[in-house]
Design the sequence.
């Protein structure tokens, strides 16, 4: 008797069902974008797991002089940023087209906080991104303390416009770093805001009928298996449409690296991570897609845990664990 497997509701499957073909996210990093937790607006030093130039002389020497901020009067570099957007998009688009035959794309504003800028800069960059060849939508990575109703209204307007490359309305996602629902954890990692702020702005974003992806980290300092699962439960209640989950790993030039070297932080084991991940996946309703099940970094900046170095091995182990509960990755 053959076993019937349920397919994991990955974002790739979601896109294929909606658009009738594969859609690829193209990550973009625009110079000038930063974070209020780095520039000192809400906190100093950034999140403890974020690479910080105050711990690296080389980073300090190379950091850019111009930084965006919502309150700056003008952005003299907007044309250069548009050029950067186009160059990055075309390079990645051409590579994906050659490798996978990719034809449709979503521009993913990935690095730093991509709503932390004057509204004129944001509207210009978002509009220009939607004009690029074969783009069907946007995904905007940000923090819950860096959005406003004005920004969300503009994104809602974009989401109501028909996209000529798909025949559907523009696909507009906002990606929020939830990380944890526990304020003591958010304070420990120097997040710069509390869970109430996350809850407020995700619910507001859903009120504008925008798609929301929540980022969750497993293995945060002092968090138990039950706490991680509670973060998943509460994130589901917020009405998120998709989720990214990954382990906390330690890299050079971070506050977390100091904690680890002082014996104040123990990274999650691969076994515990996969166990928590599988239970989380079983909790997800059918309408929530999964965009990431793990992460790692294969270079010398990784300090711990060593299992995060080989993402291919991680994925294979996760696939096996899912297959044991009759789910195909």
Sequence:
């Amino acid at each position: 008797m053959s076993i019937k497997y349920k397919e994991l509701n990955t974002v790739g499957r979601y896109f294929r069902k909606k658009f009738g073909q594969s859609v690829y996210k193209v990550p973009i990093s625009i110079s000038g974008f930063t974070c209020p937790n780095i520039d000192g607006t809400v906190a100093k030093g950034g999140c403890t797991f974020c690479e910080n130039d105050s711990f690296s002389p080389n980073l300090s020497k190379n950091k850019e002089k111009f930084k965006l901020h919502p309150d700056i009067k003008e952005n003299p570099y907007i044309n250069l940023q548009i050029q950067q957007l186009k160059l990055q998009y075309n390079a990645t688009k051409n590579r994906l087209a050659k490798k996978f035959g990719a034809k449709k794309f979503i521009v993913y504003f990935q690095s730093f906080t991509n709503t932390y800028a004057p509204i004129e800069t944001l509207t210009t960059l978002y509009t220009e991104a939607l004009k690029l060849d074969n783009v069907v939508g946007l995904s905007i990575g940000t923090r819950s303390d860096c959005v406003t109703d004005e920004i969300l209204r503009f994104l809602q307007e974009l989401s109501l416009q028909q996209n000529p490359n798909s025949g559907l309305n523009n696909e507009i996602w906002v990606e929020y770093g939830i990380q944890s629902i526990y304020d003591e954890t958010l304070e420990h990692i120097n997040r710069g805001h509390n869970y109430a702020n996350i809850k407020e702005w995700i619910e507001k974003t859903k009120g504008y009928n925008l798609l929301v992806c929540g980022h969750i980290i497993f293995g945060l300092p002092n968090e138990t298996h039950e706490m991680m699962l509670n973060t998943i439960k509460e994130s589901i209640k917020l009405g998120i449409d998709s989720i990214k989950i990954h382990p906390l790993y330690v890299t050079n030039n971070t506050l977390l690296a100091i904690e680890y070297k002082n014996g104040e932080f123990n990274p999650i084991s691969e076994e515990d991570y996969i166990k928590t991940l599988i239970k989380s996946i079983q909790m997800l309703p059918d309408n929530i897609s999964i965009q990431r099940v793990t992460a790692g970094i294969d270079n010398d900046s990784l300090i711990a845990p060593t299992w995060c170095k080989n993402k291919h091995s991680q994925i294979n182990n996760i696939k096996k664990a899912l297959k044991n509960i009759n789910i195909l990755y």
The mean pLDDT is 94. The domain at 6-328 is CATH 3.80.30.30 (pyruvate-formate lyase- activating enzyme). The CA atoms of residues 140 and 174 lie 5 Å apart.
